[in-house]
Amino acid sequence: MPGPQLFALGALVMLALVLAAWVLMLRTGNAAWVDVAWGFGMGALALLFAALGPGWRPRRELVGLLGGLWGLRLGLHLALRTAAEGREDARYTRLRQAWGGNLPLKFLGFFLFQGLLDLALAWPFLAACLDTQARLPGVAWVGAALWALALAGEALADAQLRRFKAGPAGREQVCDRGLWRFSRHPNYFFQWLAWVGCFLLALPAPLGWTTAASPLLILFFLLRVTGIPATEEQALASRGEAYQRYQRTTSPFIPWFPRRLPHA
User: Fold this and answer.
1) Which of 179, 202, 176, 175 is nearest to 190 (CA)?
2) What pLDDT, on a 0 to 100 scale, did the predictor assign at position 170?
3) How many CA within 13 A on the CB side of residue 71?
4) What's the Cα-to-Cα distance from 183 to each of 131, 233, 259, 262, rounded to whole Å?
5) How many angstroms separate the CA atoms of 173 and 24, rounded?
6) Residue range of the domain that includes 85
7) Looking at residue 260, what is its pLDDT?
8) CA terminus-to-terminus distance, the chain
């Protein structure tokens, strides 16, 4: 299928997913279903482009495997968390307070924007699946390895946090175990690393250099918009001094060894 038609089909898939999430929000009062649609949407786009793209089949299969696994794992993780918590994430509660009236329509616009963001971020998937060159250069192998590492790292970080929250200290204390000892947001770091891997895998394709926009875009959203700022605001509100100490000792994003604080 030619690129423009494939992109249009992907847009229809994302439209269906975000509308389904919006209907779920109206029925449950929980806007976090848009995150579930976002995760499943990325996997769906990777599988769609891999199945119908005109590019070299082994490369398309690699995109479908890695992108499909990444999106399926994230979507399932977010769906189970949203269903289990039974309450709306504080980010969306604050949006309701800030927006005031006419919330269904405003959230519809917000959900549609998330669908557009998925399409923009999926550009490396599409570029790689349009590439007809029958080869996989070294940089693409590096990208695939980074993508696989990111998938494993993000899954491990989510599992460690879920296990900590289920324990007796999960409500009051700060998770500083496992990967969370070296980064306050290892899940976000590995999510970004996945897009670096996508970019490197797509780089040999025609116009592959333009796919660098995807890791830059997700990095901006993680560091400045909906990722770290909102998460840290909520953590400070719920855990106070404990989280402030965690901020002083632990890298905010890139995993690194924690700092030692001087004794009082």
Assistant:
1) 179
2) 62
3) 22
4) 36, 16, 11, 20
5) 32
6) 3-249
7) 82
8) 66
Q: Which two tokens stand for residue 206?
A: 């025609």
Q: Which among 235, 263, 256, 87 has a CA at the least distance from the CA of 161?
A: 235
Q: Looking at the domain assignment, is residue 83 inside a domain?
A: yes
Residue 186 lies in a domain: yes
How many contiguous H segments (helices) and E segments (strands) does the chain have? 10, 0
**Domains held by the chain: number:** 1
Q: Which two tokens stand for residue 15?
A: 């439209």
Which segments of the chain have a pLDDT < 70?
169-171, 263-264
Judge whether 259 lies within some domain: no
Indicate the burial class of 26 (C-beta count within 10 angstroms; 0-12, 13-18, 19 or more).
Answer: middle
1 burial via Cβ count (<10 Å: 0-12, 13-18, 19+): middle
How far is it, in rounded angstroms, from Cα 133 to Cα 208? 12
Token digits for 72? 């399926």
Report yes or no: 91 and 226 within 8 Å, Cβ to Cβ: yes
The torsion region of residue 60 among left (phi > 0), alpha (psi -120 to 50) and beta comes to alpha
At residue 264, the pLDDT reads: 47
Q: Please, is 223 exposed, middle or buried when counting C-beta atoms within 10 Å of its C-beta (0-12, 13-18, 19+)?
A: middle
The answer to whether residues 183 and 254 touch, using CB atoms and an 8 Å cutoff, is yes
**Domain for residue 258, yes or no?**
no
| Distance in angstroms (rounded) separating the CA atoms of residues 96 and 82 | 18
pTM exceeds 0.85, yes or no: yes
CA 75, CA 81: separation in Å to the nearest integer? 10
